[in-house]
Amino acid sequence: MRRSDPFRKHRLRIKRVRCRSCGSENGKRTCPALNNIVICPECCRTKRAKIPGCDQNCKYYAPLLHKSRTLLPPEYPVYECFVSRTKDTGLVLAVIARQRPDGNLRAMITLLDLWKVGIRDCFFVANVTEEVLHSRSTQIAKSHNIARQLEEEASDWEKTTAMVTDNLVSHWSFDLASIRGQTLRDVWGENHGKIDGNPRVAQGKIRGGLRFSGRKKNRIIIPHHKSLSLEGHMTLCAWIYWNGRSDIIVTKRDPLNYQFSALGNRTIQLCVGGVENERGYTCVYSDRVLVPNRWVHIAVVRDRETVFFYKDGEHAGTQHVSSTSMTNERDLVIGSSPRGYFRYGGILDELSIYDNILSQNQIRQNFSAKKGLEISEEFQYHFESVELLEYQRLIRHGYDIAQGVKTEIPWEFNYWRNIVGNIDEVPKTEGSLYKCPKCSGELPQVAVDLIKQHAQTDDMQFYIVCRKCSGEFD
């Protein structure tokens, strides 16, 4: 007697069903957002969360949402944050990029409308090079007429944001674009270096920087070139985020030509070689102006016997040295001594070497510079680098406005918001929800209520200024 098999129906051959979306013979799922038509898994994945009705109630999408909330994706280190602003529409394009283990970037591009709806749009890029990210961000900025400046403003912008390049020998930006494998590219000259050890790319003062542990033998070795042997006149500049120990930033020694260091007593040190000295070199020091664990721009200028020190563009001491100099044909080393001692601990960014003296105004220009040397002029025209906290405050302001006027948050922002960081830990916008577009001051509540009333009206573009700027609003 043949026994019945209760599981026989599950082993029967399933009849192929055509996908109503793409026409393939792999239709397996009924989509509740498309009136329960049969679609294939590929079309389900493509349309997921992009059409009305595809939400947490879908039996195919809900498990993925649960997994994304319980198993957070890896938190990659922040590589750079940059923004672009308009003066006449209230739009801000805010971009954050984090570095993936393979060296590429994961980025989120958020379009903020700080005059009306808060978060207007959001774009996420999972795997992109820095060059492509800059190109895409620039295209989006241009499509929304963001940072479009007048011709008469362009020359002033160039003067205030550009680094000094007169008499510049070498410049190492430490950005991701300047690193190829174990090679650090000199973005101005030809003095490219070999990365020894494992220093990590981190968020620098201007885009990317290079983090040195201070413990392991992490350094950059630049082969000798006659352009790096300096006599009499020289200028060395760098942005440092330093851990407070006595560390070498850059040196060319054995015998000593010059050495640029940050010391534990919070002074900047310059050592130069000279045959008139018994030890063969002389060291001079700045005032005690360094601050550990924060970004500081330091510079030293040697004009024969006189040495000038600068911190954040301001004078930090004057010392005197021998007028003679001693050169060598040794390699230039960034981050430690040639033997691996006095290892730099912290982040290093925008290191420059000049073979002549810079004035204090030129040092201030380098301190105020917001653009690098190796990225496109078009990108720099539209964007400026900002700190992570400033970026998060902009996002939080846009998010608060969107919540206040009940703007629908883009699904990309909700799904990938971990790339921004924990936005709940960022303080809420202080004062009024909307700010004066002229002075960024507070607006009276009656003005805020009026803006909220018309925020979702697409055919109306307006702004309200504070009493101080208008003198008329009541």
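Second entry:
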Amino acid sequence: MAISYDKLLEIMTTNEITDADLMRRANLAAGTISRIRKGQPIPMSSIERICRAMYCSPDDILAFVPDGEETRRRILPRNMPILMDRLRNHYACARTRRAHPAAPKVSIILPVYNVSRYLAACVKSVLVQTMTEIEIICINDGSTDGSADILRRFAEQDSRIILLHQANRGYGASVNRGLDIARGEYVSIVETDDFIEPQMMQALYDVACAQGKPDIVKSSYHLYYDDTDEAECRKRPPIAIHCNPPEPVFSIRTYPELIYHHPSIWSCLYRRGFLEAHAIRFVEAKGAGWVDNPFFLQTMWQAERIAWTPDAYYNYRQTNPGASSFVKDCRIPFQRLSEMIRFADHHRIDHPDVLGSLYKRMLWNLAMVVSNPHYQPERDDPLILPVLRRLDVTFLANKRVTNNERTVCRAYCESHGLPIP
């Protein structure tokens, strides 16, 4: 049933548009709505213009379209689904920013793809943050498992949530979408099969303020295991044991220990101005695709000031069988390493520890891949070999290299005609 023009005016007035604006926007809308009522085809630009002008959802406009699938196909543009997603996303941003016009201290980005089992717990952990000056940007990346419905319910209950929808484009594209619209002084990324402690954002922001607003605030985290008792479900990661910078604020050049550990890009705050100044974004690869690795190197190398806290507020789930850490395509780790090597070449990185961290990842990835049941030499070796040729063989004597990594590397080099280190 099509709604009336009066109903549309009511929608507009509830969105706090002034009387003068109301008349101007109503006149703008009148021609398009008249064409819709007459069953005349309407261009995409008209629908987009009317929605943006009136700050209303495209669903409100589409309610004017007469019932009947054939009629709707004749009237509406062919690419209407794409337009609908774009306008719904615009409406979601406008709704949140009218309710919360002041820029938040932290923008929290939640990329979402088929995580319905864990999603509610994750979103709840973000909503109960003791810091209230936050915006929560949820990007539904074409989920097919009910995740979108879960997000809609939360968005209806809390106006701090901006819910964006897109066709499936992968983790990197989802986070980039959030970065593009974020308004916070700092940005945080929370993966939606994990969850955070209530004080995380406030605690990390307090560190930022105490240390003169550094480019990155990085913290430790918990390795979280489901189906274990409360005393055993959280474990300390290696970074918590080995990271002890001599100064409260440092750079990777002066304290490179961080660069050797798991990227853990989600146990951080990133100053948004820093990301923008260096045009730092994620690689937009299919799926999750280990795109945190290049982002980690980009941010760590280009940050002039990094603050560290050993306190752990992030629970990194180890028991999700769909996580990207369970590698099914053995090319992916080496595709990301290739991108990291190109970044290092472009920036002329010659710091021995930063290069050493790349060599360590080469060896770790190689040992992981060749023992993986999904390893297919004919498919995977063309990506592995060019990366391995960049290995400084003297690094095999480094104490960070395990005996297994040395053995695997030597065996692989021998079998593939590379110089045996």
